[in-house]
From TrEMBL:
Residues annotated to bind ATP: S13, F14, H21, G92, I93, R94, E102, Y127, S128, F129, I130, S131, S132, S133
Job description of the protein: Reversibly transfers an adenylyl group from ATP to 4'-phosphopantetheine, yielding dephospho-CoA (dPCoA) and pyrophosphate.
Pathway(s): Cofactor biosynthesis; coenzyme A biosynthesis; CoA from (R)-pantothenate: step 4/5
Domain Cytidyltransferase-like: 9-137
Transition state stabilizer (site feature) positions: H21
Similarity comment text for this entry: Belongs to the bacterial CoaD family.
Localization: Cytoplasm
This protein's name: Phosphopantetheine adenylyltransferase
Keyword Nucleotidyltransferase: yes
Amino acid sequence: MNKKIRKAIFAGSFDPITNGHLDIICRASKIFDELQIGVLHNPNKKGMFTFEERVELIEKCTNHLDNIKIVSFNGLLVNYCEEHGIDTLVRGIRNGTDVEYELQMAHMNKELNPNIETVILATNPKYSFISSSLIKEVLNFDADIKNLVPEVVLEELKRKTNRGK
């Protein structure tokens, strides 16, 4: 009897990837046989890292996980999922605002494709205040962010902002 491979995708801009993202990725990788990391370009956000740099950072941060695949796509996430045999979206939440937004997105995705399920994972409380935007903002003031991002990301952030101390 053939066992169905459980495939999921965790999509985001990851500009940059944070310890909060990695918390969700590591936990989701234990649940699914294959976890795709969908790196998106958000035209509403000015990116610090190029698409290629974000992919490279994610690869370096997840190279200890053997069931991760990093992908990109254009268009609706549910369409990508249907085309690639993925039936689960993984989303992370930090607070009540995230819950409202993610529920709205889960309902819309279900409306667009009834075969898609959304699994929402609450982030570890120690990462509940972290966002990529906030990381970049506090870095402008030389804040110590070494506990908020992986070491490789910290090095790249310092290099990009000329704060290599």
